[in-house]
Structure formats: structure tokens, C-alpha cells
Amino acid sequence: MALRIGIIGAGSIGCYVGAALAMGGAETSFLARERIANIVAEHGLRISDFRGLDHHIAPAHLCFFTDIGAMADRECVIVTVKSGDTEAVAADLAKVIDSKAIVISLQNGVGNAAVLQKALPNHTVLAGMIAFNVLQGERGHFHAGTDGEVIIQESAMAQELAAFFLASGTPFETHDNMTSVLWSKLLLNLNNPINALSGIGLKDQLSQRAYRLCLAALQREALAVLGSAGIPIQKMTAVPATWMPALLSLPDFVFKRFAQSMLAIDPVARSSMWEDLERGRKTEVEWLNGEVIRLGENYGLSAPANERVRQLIQQAERGGRRDYKGDELLKLISA
């Protein structure tokens, strides 16, 4: 019998992951907002990536729900909601899921698994993360425009899921130190607000030195904080994390020569924070830059660049600018 998987929060990441698992033979159900449920009911679910994957699941073969009660029989529940919704979702899950169900967090930020575990003390809760970007298109289409893997805490369930990801070619790994992995991913995700404030595609943004200098400033502060906290950093790109600020600071022609893998991005790719602002949703800036700021405070360190970016994103959430040129943004962050 196929593994029964429930996707809680079927937005861009949830729909992509759920469809990839279904390709491998998992019996996948999706909990989604009514808007998404209506779209896939009409058009089905299509996933694609920059490597050439293009797979469509017809509406008749999809199970989308708007009531969390539909997750009661799931053996594995994968949570992909925004970090700000984790606590409420955890409380709802505690009322309905099977006592033996395993819960996995595939979310941005570093503390979501702990929030889920607190609400579900008798369940196994596994931390996880996704290193690639997924952009929601039209007619139920979700496109992975950047490279990266799914990483889940080492466990028997993670090994079982690995087999289901093979059909879609989705890179998959397990790891036994997810705290380190999640903070390492957060370092990369510090580009999310820079991209959101630029108003342009990821590839275009990362090709311009002024925007990269903004990201380098955020990463330098984060690396200093993580060093004080004694949190080791995983190598998640071709370049070690500690070298990244220096690489980002190189002139454009040098960067493009030595960092080709970083620019192996679909031109349409945008950050999830850009998508949140585009759709009028609250962003996850508190669970990205805010985490750096709060951890720094614990060790007597300030993170002024991250604080300024947090303020600019909060202004954008209220309708403020999100079309800054690179030099403009760098000046604001450096002030």
C-alpha cells in the first residue's frame, strides 16, 4: 500500500513537493486555501523545473481539501505553511491527525519543528528544508527555477520519502544536524528580502554587484552571530559560506566568471518574499532577518543591516516601495 502523505499548506512549495511525491507513487492529499483548491479543480496541477521536468496531474487524480479534518488518516504530514501560521496549524493538527502520524516541517526559518513538537508532544516531528525556489504561475503551474535539494532529518521516514522523490528527479538528502542545516539555509534566504525589494528576477538581481553587496552585508552579520553562538555552517553551495560575502563583493565580470552555478537560475525565478508582497500577504521577514537580530541580541551583538532590511520589508507590507535600485538599497542598508 502506498504511503499516505498529507501536505499542510499547499502553496508554491506544498504543491510542488506534493506533486513530486505523487509522481513517485505516494498517496498524496493537499490542504489548501480555497483559491488554490479551485484552480487545481479546474486545471489540475503542473510542476516543472529548470532542468526540464514538466509533469501534469489531472484534476480527477488530485485530492485537495480546505478542511484539516481530511488529514486524519495520513501516515506522514508535511507542513509547508508560512512560519507565522505554524502555531495555529499545529494546534489544529493536534485535534485530528493519527497518533502514529509523523510530522515534517518543510518551512523557512529555524524554529518551526520546535513549535510543532510543543503542540504534538506524543508525535515524531522531523525538521526539514527546501533549498530551491518555486514560483506559482497560472493555471495550477508551479515552477522550480533554481537548483537545490530537499533535506530532512535523518530517520526511517526520510529514507522512505527518498524513494518517492526519485521519479521527479528532485535532489534529496538526509542530515543528522538540522539546526546547522536550517541556519545554513537561512544564510542563503537572506537574499529573499533583497530580491523582494528589488522588484526584479533573481538572476538579474544577483548579476548586479550593488544588490550582492546588500546580501553580503546581511550575511556578514549573520556569520558573526552564528560564530558567537557556536552554530556550525554547512556547505550548501559550491563556495563555503564563510567565503560567500567576499565572493558576492567581486566586480560583476569576475563574479559571473567564478560563480556561474549561483547564476544557474531560470530568468523567471523570484523569491518567495517577492511573491508574498505581490499577493498582499505578510512575509516571513521576522523568521529570516528577525532570527539573526534576536540571536545576536542573546550574545550582545547588533545586526543593523538586517534590522534596516526588516524595516524596509515591513514598510513594503504596508504598501511601501519595492522597486529599489541596487545603489539605493545599499545606501539605505549601509546608513
UniProtKB/TrEMBL annotation:
Fetch the InterPro entries from UniProt.
6-PGluconate_DH-like_C_sf (IPR008927), 6PGD_dom2 (IPR013328), ApbA (IPR003710), Ketopantoate_reductase (IPR050838), KPA_reductase (IPR013752), KPR_N (IPR013332), NAD(P)-bd_dom_sf (IPR036291)
| Enzyme Commission code | 1.1.1.169
Q: Which domain of life is it from?
A: Bacteria
Pathway per its UniProt entry is: Cofactor biosynthesis; (R)-pantothenate biosynthesis; (R)-pantoate from 3-methyl-2-oxobutanoate: step 2/2
Protein family membership: Belongs to the ketopantoate reductase family.
Q: Does the keyword NADP apply?
A: yes
Q: What does this protein do?
A: Catalyzes the NADPH-dependent reduction of ketopantoate into pantoic acid.
Any one annotated GO CC term? cytoplasm
What does it catalyze?
(R)-pantoate + NADP(+) = 2-dehydropantoate + NADPH + H(+)
List membrane-spanning regions: none
Q: Which residues form the Ketopantoate reductase C-terminal domain?
A: 177-316
Q: Which UniProt keywords apply?
A: NADP, Oxidoreductase, Pantothenate biosynthesis
Keyword Transmembrane part of the UniProt annotation: no
Show the GO MF annotations.
2-dehydropantoate 2-reductase activity; NADP binding
Q: Where is the Ketopantoate reductase N-terminal domain?
A: 5-154
One biological process term in Gene Ontology:
pantothenate biosynthetic process
Question: Which EC class is the enzyme in?
Answer: oxidoreductase
What is this protein called in UniProt? 2-dehydropantoate 2-reductase
